[in-house]
Model the fold of this input.
Amino acid sequence: MSEVSDLILAIKRQLKAHGMTYKDVAAAMQLSEPSVKRLFSNERLTVERVAQLADLLGMTLSELMLSAHVSAPELHGLAPADELRLVRHPRLLLVAVCVLNHWQPAQIVAVYQIDSSECDDALSQLQGMGLLTVLPGQRIRLRIARDFVWLPDGPIRRFFREEGLPDFLDHPFTAADEGMDFVHGMLTDAARQELQTVIQRVRQRFATLHEASATAPLEEKTGMALLLARRTWEPPVFRALRR
Done:
């Protein structure tokens, strides 16, 4: 969805809140009602028309624009078909992951073997999915909610589980800021619930640190992955010895 679409949705919401109809808009703009409907459906509102609408609503132009920004819908997740599309096109998936990590187009082109036209095409597709809006000057505004997640057993998670997990684990984890601990024990139901709460807090803390790092220059950041896993489990060699 484009910024113009956001603005028109905001105008419609404000008209409804003020109890106004297209007929009221037509009278204020000295247009026919069908002409007003075409203006909205074709998304061809000029600045002058938007200013007229703001005046009709008793708002300043900046207040109306702000209401469009504040009320813009946020995406909580992608449809399975969109996730599958990303998985089937690695370059599109790469651009998606980069922008979700707050990269700008010029940085993607500079670091990866993707030219400007490919990057622009990928951004256009991602905008169509609702992930982002491309602003003037090739700036990116994400359209995702804070709780945005990939589908629990969707194409993206399966892709990273099958393609990424083996590579992630095939590593010595010896660097100063790396590490992998493995523990095993037996827990009660209450203890398992408490463990889940602790894991959720760690995940939320990671997300908070990610957001806090968003405005730092790219050269000051490093891609970091955190694997949190829990399951009822017994080593296969032990299972083989059960009666």
The chain is about 55% helix and 5% strand. The domain at 75-165 is CATH 1.10.10 (Arc Repressor Mutant, subunit A).
